[in-house]
Write a structure and sequence with these properties.
It is a single chain. The chain starts with a helix and ends with a strand. It is of the alpha/beta class. It has a seven-stranded mixed beta sheet with strand order 3-2-1-4-5-7-6, sandwiched between helices. The protein has nine helices and seven strands; from the N terminus they run H-H-H-E-H-E-H-E-E-H-E-H-H-H-E-E. It is globular. Helix 2 runs antiparallel to helix 7 (about 170-190) and helix 3 (about 40-50) packs across helix 4 (about 70-80). It has one domain (about 5-240): Vaccinia Virus protein VP39 (Rossmann fold), CATH 3.40.50. Bound molecules: S-adenosylmethionine. The site of S-adenosylmethionine has 22 residues, from helix 1 and helix 4.
């Protein structure tokens, strides 16, 4: 009996996240390039290289917290004519930018769904793979998102998560801290007119569980062969698991 306090706190967290992304949607892609010095492209490319969508067989992919479609476009480009992707995000402003960017490029092989990672409005055992890139740390109840991921995957399906992690190199960690706390909010203020949102994002990265702990949560949700791999000195990590 938590008298509903916890429920309110969770709803507040999600509302805060929604404000952030509504406010940055239009400038999101530009900000991503500026803040990561273009590195997010290499990180996403790494995740797609691990995923290797089939070029010859049907491949149904779900990209959760898919925002403006970046990961989805890459999956479609790497896959074959029978690859299709559902982009799901809680924020319509982000999805609208995504749909605009997609245009007519992928003729019907991409669709955009508004929904919450904690309660996916999608049937069981539907997808060959599930990705979530820089999204899971925004989800208030990570355990629920992981359970839902497992539910919508087919047996044999792959879970891949790309997320900011813990920098584990001596000098890089100092540089990274200075960059996160000073440069990013300033960039946010100048380019997106919103320092507060970017301060929030930096904090959410700090609060996210360590890679070992997060791997344990993925196992708890029932995934097997769980692995994680740091990229760029641990600035980000790719976690992988299988539904067997
Ligand atoms: N995956 C994209 C990328 O890598 O460029 C977008 C990442 S963006 C940092 C985080 C996204 O998570 C936002 O678009 C936000 O709306 C979405 N999001 C936040 N909470 C969510 C939730 N509970 N369910 C689904 N999406 C959520």
């Amino acid at each position: 009996t938590d008298f509903g306090f916890e429920r309110v706190a969770l709803a507040e967290k999600q509302a805060r996240v929604d404000d952030v992304f509504r406010s940055v949607a239009k400038r999101y892609d530009l900000m991503n390039d500026l803040m990561s010095g273009g590195l997010h492209r290499a990180w996403k490319a790494q995740a797609i290289a691990m995923l290797r969508p089939s070029r010859t067989r049907p491949f149904r992919h779900l990209d959760v917290a898919g925002g403006t479609g970046d990961v989805a476009f890459r999956v479609l480009e790497a896959g074959g004519p029978q690859t299709s992707v559902t982009v799901l995000d809680i924020n319509e402003a982000m999805l609208r930018v995504g749909a605009e960017r997609a245009g007519a490029r992928f003729d019907g092989r991409i669709d955009f769904v508004t929904g919450n990672a904690e309660t996916l409005p999608l049937p069981d055992a539907t997808f060959d793979a599930y990705t979530i890139a820089f999204g899971i740390r925004n989800v208030p109840r990570i355990e629920l998102a992981l359970q839902e991921a497992r539910r919508v995957l087919k047996p044999g399906g792959r879970f891949l998560c790309l997320e900011f992690s813990k920098v584990d190199l001596p000098v890089l960690d100092k540089i990274y801290d200075a960059y996160s706390f000073h440069v990013i909010p300033r960039l946010g203020a100048r380019v997106a007119g919103d320092a507060e949102s970017y301060r929030y994002l930096v904090e959410s990265i700090r609060k996210f569980p360590s890679p070992g702990l997060f791997a344990g949560m993925i196992e708890q949700a029932g995934f097997r062969h769980v692995t994680h791999r740091p990229l760029s000195g641990g600035i980000v990590a790719i976690h992988s698991g299988w539904k067997v």
